[in-house]
Design goal:
The radius of gyration is 20 Å and the shape is globular. It folds into 2 domains: about 210 residues, Glycogen Phosphorylase B (Rossmann fold, 3-Layer(aba) Sandwich); about 30 residues. By secondary structure, it is an alpha/beta fold. It contains 9 helices and 8 strands. The chain has an 8-stranded mixed sheet with strand order 3-4-2-1-5-6-7-8, sandwiched between helices.
Length: about 240
């Protein structure tokens, strides 16, 4: 079976509880353990000077974790600025909270290009690459520009708004055109696919978005919740509420 290459903004460190790296890590944990896997992305470290391009690699079972740091300027522009200051509110239909700055868009594109340059030397010819979430919309195009010809898929873990809202993003068409580099585009629910495909149609982009829901293991979380019912924190909360009544 070909190796799976997962690319996400954050990468869970080996031995780290997955929740510490976000819900995406929880959702992908089972897929990552089912075959040989390379998981690439940001370490969470912010460095002085330029962003380092040489990944730090750690092996844990069948998974190789490859991480790079971000320079302070890249962290501010790519992560806090465009990704979380512009895209996150927009994609959640909170346009009033979005703030667009050309310098932050430039940082966003530059970091995606840097991710691609750091990842390419680690790739094998038969890898299947799976890119995740709004931080990395243009990564597939950056990989194609770097000569990667194998299958690349993209999955959006947050909603996609109606076209009239997404069109509030300056140069949003430029961002959507990069989706043409992917062989498959996934979203969580059919409505998100309808919204995204309407814009892809307008731009003449052939790739279609389809709903492939990704989520947590509900049974495991239910078991954890039942175990917590007799924990000291829950008992203290129960006692405090009883005193209020």
């Amino acid at each position: 079976m070909a190796r799976l290459v997962i690319v996400s903004n954050r990468v869970p460190a080996p031995g780290q509880r997955s929740q510490a790296a976000g819900g995406l890590a929880v959702a992908l944990r089972n897929a990552a353990h089912q075959r040989d896997c390379l998981w690439f992305g940001w370490s969470g470290n912010v460095t002085d000077g330029a962003s380092p391009l040489a990944p730090h690699i750690m092996q844990a079972g069948r998974i190789a974790f490859a991480t790079i740091g971000l320079a302070q300027a890249d962290y501010q522009g790519y992560y806090r600025g465009f990704a979380n200051g512009m895209l996150w509110p927009l994609l959640h239909s909170r346009v009033g909270l979005s703030e667009f700055r050309r310098t932050e868009l430039a940082a966003y594109l530059a970091v995606n290009t840097a991710f691609a340059k750091a990842l390419v030397p680690l790739l094998r010819a038969d890898d299947t690459i799976w890119v995740h979430d709004y931080h990395l919309f243009p990564l597939g195009q950056a990989l194609r520009d770097a000569g990667v010809s194998g299958p690349i898929g993209f999955f959006l873990h947050v909603p996609f708004p109606p076209p009239s809202l997404f069109e509030c993003l300056p140069q949003g068409d430029k961002l959507l055109r990069t989706l043409a580099a992917y062989d498959a585009v996934g979203v969580q629910v059919p409505e998100d696919g309808v919204n995204l495909n309407a814009l892809l149609d307008q731009l003449g982009i052939v790739v279609r978005a389809a709903a492939f829901p990704v989520g947590i293991d509900p049974d495991a979380f239910a078991k954890a919740a039942r175990r917590a019912e007799t924990g000291p924190e829950v008992l203290r909360l129960t006692d405090s509420l009883a005193a209020v009544r």
